[in-house]
Amino acid sequence: MAVTTRTRKSARRRQLEAAINYPIDWLEERSGLIGGLRYFLFRKVPGDTNWFHTLGSATLTAFLVQALTGVILAMYYQPDATVNPATGTSAAYGSIQHITNDLTLGWLVRGMHKWGASVFIILLFFHMARVFLFGAYKYPRELNWIIGVTLLVFGMLEGFTGYLLPWDQTAYWATVVGINLNGTAPILGPFLADFLRGGAEIGGDTLSRFYSLHMLLLPGAIFALIGLHLYLVIRLGVTSPPWSREAAGTDWNEKPSENGRSGLTQPSGRSAWRRNGADT
Ligand code: HEM
Q1: Cβ neighbours around 276 below 10 Å, total
Q2: What is the structure's pLDDT at 150?
């Protein structure tokens, strides 16, 4: 009796497994995506990785929260500086008030987006400090450092462009200061200030411009750069802490190319380069 129940259970289990595996196998056979995901999740990392190595993922999480809350806000926000004569306020400011006061949990989504922006920037700096103090910017990770710096600049531009959107006094005057500061840069400054204002004065055109940069161009570029950043993290592996024997700056053990195209399309191991006496 017990044996029959067990056999039936395992038959049901097999059916369930087959039902779960079918779509996964279907996708893997046609795209190789599952293998790629498995490689990403189960790759080897140095044994002495520690909590400091989670700062990059924390930054990524903060960015994803910004993206998600931003999409929800964009469903209700109006980038329109026109003043409604009935209320005496602009459509943009009115829509922010509507999100905060009338929509279910609107105050929470807006609050998460507003405070999350600071969390994202703070985590960016913490992550960058970790990378710097661990020497992880050294060969062969210089390119990832450069991509990181670009991410930092774009991240701060997100903060700058987002600050104007509530279209209240604080937003307006902070943007006046920001644009004037940019305008003082040598040669390019006045052009940059003109581009940001979208005219001689800060007005409706500036608002639409900042909105477009804030919710299309900059997040798109950040998503693409994060993809590249993570690809390089996976390709090169993460750096051990400076107190480890495997710390950054010790020899890089990439196998040198065997087809004579080292350094062009194939990485040339720096240790092999040195061993061959090429840089002595
Ligand atoms: C949106 C912003 C960013 C995200 C989502 C991000 C994400 C990550 C993640 C998940 C890692 C691997 C785990 C870790 O080391 O924490 C990493 C590594 C790295 N990041 Fe970032 N990062 C960002 C910005 C930056 C910035 C601003 C810099 C430097 C200017 C930077 C430079 C690096 C470097 C060089 C590595 C390799 C570290 C190693 O090999 O140990 N990243 N990043």
Answers
A1: 11
A2: 98
